[in-house]
Amino acid sequence: MKFFVDTANLDQIKEAFDLGVLDGVTTNPSLMAKEGITGQKKILDHYVKICEIADGPVSAEVISTDFKGIIKEGEKLADLHPNIVVKVPMIKDGVKALRYFSDNGIKTNCTLIFSAGQAILAAKAGATYLSPFIGRLDDTSWDGMELISQIVHIYNTHGYETEVLAASIRNPLHIVKCAEMGADVVTCPLNSILGLLNHPLTDIGLAKFLEDHKKANQ
Ligand code: G3P
């Protein structure tokens, strides 16, 4: 399972890659706004900066909602750097755009997925990645993890090549569950990735080893 970091914060992206376990980055307009990145030029420049830090796919989201606008914006984003993946929302014109991009060799990430039906449509349209939002489903008392399991089953049954990129991860347990369910990728806040490190018995065990070593070597 690949690990992407879900942020537009350059320090966090660098920290995540320095860990040595990161495979890519996802962003969205909310994450860009959170970093204070506004205006087309600054936004495009920021994507290039992310690509220069990250050694792997970087999802950059379109904000157009009509076919022509999505294509124009997506092609501009894809021209920025070979690692750019154009993130397209699950809407009717978005599905048409997924097919266009797929036929023209541009990688895509279909975002805002909340149902298996949407996942089938995106795969049929040739999406490279599919982003089901686990945490936002859990927030509404639907089972986000159940959706991941259902989509993985459907894709495996029918041989769809679209990669399941579990998004809206909120904690380390989501990551572990996604691994169990067979998600291809998880995109996570840095804190959720770092949370995988934690176990009190590791801390207690390490303290004891160091103490014993110190006593024996006094
Ligand atoms: O990038 C899409 C997704 O990961 C958003 O997560 O936490 O805003 O639901 P969240």
In short:
It is built from eleven helices and eight strands.
How would the blueprint of this fold be written?
Elements: E1 2-6, H1 10-18, E2 24-26, H2 29-34, H3 40-53, E3 58-61, H4 67-80, E4 84-89, H5 92-103, E5 108-113, H6 116-124, E6 129-132, H7 134-139, H8 144-158, E7 163-166, H9 172-181, E8 185-188, H10 190-195, H11 200-216
Parallel strand pairs: 1-2, 1-8, 2-3, 3-4, 4-5, 5-6, 6-7, 7-8
Helix pairs in contact: 4-5, 6-8, 8-9
The structure holds SN-glycerol-3-phosphate.
The site of SN-glycerol-3-phosphate has 9 residues, from helix 7.
Name its key features.
218 residues; alpha/beta; 8-stranded parallel β-barrel; 8 strands; globular; binds SN-glycerol-3-phosphate
Instruction: Report the count of strand segments.
Output: 8
Widest β-sheet, arrangement of strands: 1-2-3-4-5-6-7-8
Distance between the termini: 45 Å
Q: Please summarize the sheet with the most strands.
A: 8 strands, parallel, barrel
Bound molecules: SN-glycerol-3-phosphate
Structural class based on helices, strands and sheet pairing = alpha/beta
Shape verdict: globular
Mean pLDDT: 97
**How much of the polypeptide forms β-strand, as a percent range?**
15-25%
Instruction: Give the topology string: H per helix, E per strand.
Output: EHEHHEHEHEHEHHEHEHH
Number of helices: 11
Share in helix: 40-55%
> Which residue ranges are poorly predicted, with pLDDT under 50 across at least 5 consecutive positions?
none
Radius of gyration: 19 Å
